[in-house]
Amino acid sequence: ASSSTLVKNSTNHNAIHQPVTQRSILLSSTNNYLSNPLVTRLCRATSTHSIWNETALPDKIKTLDEYKAIYALSIKDPNRFWKMAAECLDWYQFPTKIKNTEFDYRTSRGVDIKWYEDGIINVCYNCLDRHIHHDHSIAQQVALIFEPDTPTESRHHITYAELLRDVKKFANVLKKHGVKKGDRVTLYMPMVIEACVAMLACARIGAVHSVIFGGFSPNNIAERISGCDSTVIITTDFGVRGGKSSPLKTKIDQALALKQCSNVKTVLVFERNHGMTELKDDCSHLRKTLEWTDGRDFWVHKEMETVNDKCEPERMNAEDPLFILYTSGSTGTPKGIVHTTGGYLTYTSLTFKYSFDYNPGDVYMCTADIGWITGHSYVVYGPLANRATTVIFEGIPTYPDVSRYWNIIDKHEVNIFYTAPTAIRSLMQHDDAYVTKTNRQSLRILGSVGEPINPEAWKWYHSVVGDNRCPIIDTWWQTETGGIMISPIPNAWELEPGSATFPFFGIQTQLFDQTTKKPLKPPNHGELCIADSWPGQARSLYRNHERFVDVYFKTYPGYYFTGDGCEIKPNGYHWITGRVDDVLVISGHNIGTAEVEAALEEHTSVTEAAVVGYPDPKKNQGMYCFVTLKGNVKPSEELRKELIRSVRDSIGAHVYPDVIHFTSNLPKTRSGKIMRRILRKIVEPDTSNLGDTSTLNDPTIVEELIKNSPRTK
Ligand code: WTA
């Protein structure tokens, strides 16, 4: 694989852009296209249109007027718009029903979201086979470029044909171990090509993957495995990041030793970067230390030798689940967000194409981990559905030094680069020379996601990284939304540093007043809701539709509530102002305060904990923990460190309390509810504006907390 060449800008455009009339597409899409040469290829076919003719979506959105015209149609006639969008994909059976959704829980139907409900499709087929099927030369196009943690001389490229072969073989390994359509399979993997192989193999056979971020601890892994009743786990022996190895398989062993995971029958273990002999650190010395449970644990490279590379994609209903992804909520256990097949792929595919102005042959790189939604939608599914060449980066932005991203961009001639503000802010602390000594001429577009990007970071990203040449595509969206919801379209309109600008096609934003719960007319600032459904949105929480309705649809009946604040300016530009609930967004990670409180309260010395966020210029938010201790326990530096450690052990190393504030008491209402509003004001700090404290059972505690808080000193 390492010898394969990168096919750049040399694909046979004539062969791909054969105009196909809509009528022939619709006729052919009702047949089995696998045996029919007349297949759906509408999006590519329309690239020759320079003006939008309303019969098919254009390849590019070039102006604000064009956006507005298409946006208007997408709102006026969502069935028509999303039918055209679905024509970008190949279906075994093209849907006759496009949109069938209900957002109002008060109706007899209740909240119920269905898109393309009689369509039959396979996601893996659309990401891999389809491209080769339409143009055989694509077989040799590079699909994934692997950039290992340690920058080595050699490059590891995998073509579409090679990726497809590996996916088929691994799908057969899954089948051999009894995995069937609808079964849940848990992945616990680092950023390696094998993670994409495993996800796509699940999609190919209709298994529902649940990827757990590689930083989570055994407790959290166990909770997420048992939460979706997985009996098969896919992992790697080790992961390597920033020069340190992490024993993923051993963490799985620890999770499986817990009672709740007793149903797990099979653990499939990839060797980290099996066969990549050029890697300096191939982990072979560590491999000897692994424990092995015979009959349960299997090496994937050995299993792959026992299967062939023939595997027909499973025909999936558009509303069959594609994956479950856990995300932190403001209360309770993590939520198992359920995304389905046809709508999710249509939405991620279209948003990728427009928001990043993707051209065939472009090299694209997204630094998000596959354990988060950005990794699902914009490392794996969106790019591959658009036949992109994607860089998979195993490491971190500061290793071996802070030029790493910019060196990778030069090495692979990356055209589109998508990262998080937290990475930008940490890199801009250092001398600009770390950036300017690199070339970066290949860059065309710079993306941002995960938290609000402050204008200072935006400007640095734009001027220093992008040489004032590349638009910053600030994309606002969520695990629950499946894909990008508010974002600029490159070069179609003016940007304002810090604003995600306008909603994507089909997305109707609506602001509400937090107190009166009344809708607000822009320009205004309020809580952000979405007025109607879009194909990429989550359908439910795994086996808990009631909680789904409670969390997202009860606050503002008839609307999807995002949990974010937003300001819409007179020019219509949207400015996201951050979470309005008890979810912290720290360095791009969502952290539920309730989870941290539970972790602290597990400690034998702790009576009660209350966790709130405060603004932090580098990490977006810092984590502030108020802790009350059991009667005889004295606060100490040692205990403080121990509590920090136990939070990290309990949840994961990415969760780090910045402040532990020991106190004798917490401000509570007379009914015993902790007044988080007051705690937030104390740590912001904005103590001149505490609001009404008269309902507290002990108003003096507020003064004491202010006096002792390191944030108000
Ligand atoms: C925040 C990540 C401002 C927001 C795709 C949201 C953002 C939460 C932006 C979802 C942005 C994400 N500007 N805030 N461009 N992107 N957020 O589920 O608070 O990991 O609700 O999805 O991140 O985080 P999640």
From TrEMBL:
Biological-process GO terms, alphabetical: acetyl-CoA biosynthetic process from acetate
Membrane-spanning residues: none
Catalytic activity reported: acetate + ATP + CoA = acetyl-CoA + AMP + diphosphate
Class of enzymatic activity (EC top level): ligase
Ranges of residues in domain AMP-dependent synthetase/ligase: 142-532
Tagged with keyword DNA-binding: no
CDD domains assigned to the protein according to its UniProt record, in alphabetical order: ACS (cd05966)
Residues of the AMP-binding enzyme C-terminal domain: 595-673
Top-level taxonomic group: Eukaryota
GO molecular function: acetate-CoA ligase activity; AMP binding; ATP binding
SUPFAM superfamilies: Acetyl-CoA synthetase-like
Pfam families, per database record: ACAS_N, AMP-binding, AMP-binding_C
InterPro entries noted in UniProt: Ac_CoA_lig, ACAS_N, AMP-bd_C, AMP-bd_C_sf, AMP-binding_CS, AMP-dep_synth/lig_dom, ANL_N_sf
GO cellular component: cytosol
Domain Acetyl-coenzyme A synthetase N-terminal per the UniProt entry, residue ranges: 67-127
UniProt keywords, alphabetically: ATP-binding, Ligase, Nucleotide-binding
Assigned EC number: 6.2.1.1
Family: Belongs to the ATP-dependent AMP-binding enzyme family.
Name of the featured protein: Acetyl-coenzyme A synthetase
Protein species of origin: Rotaria sordida
Organism classification: Eukaryota, Metazoa, Spiralia, Gnathifera, Rotifera
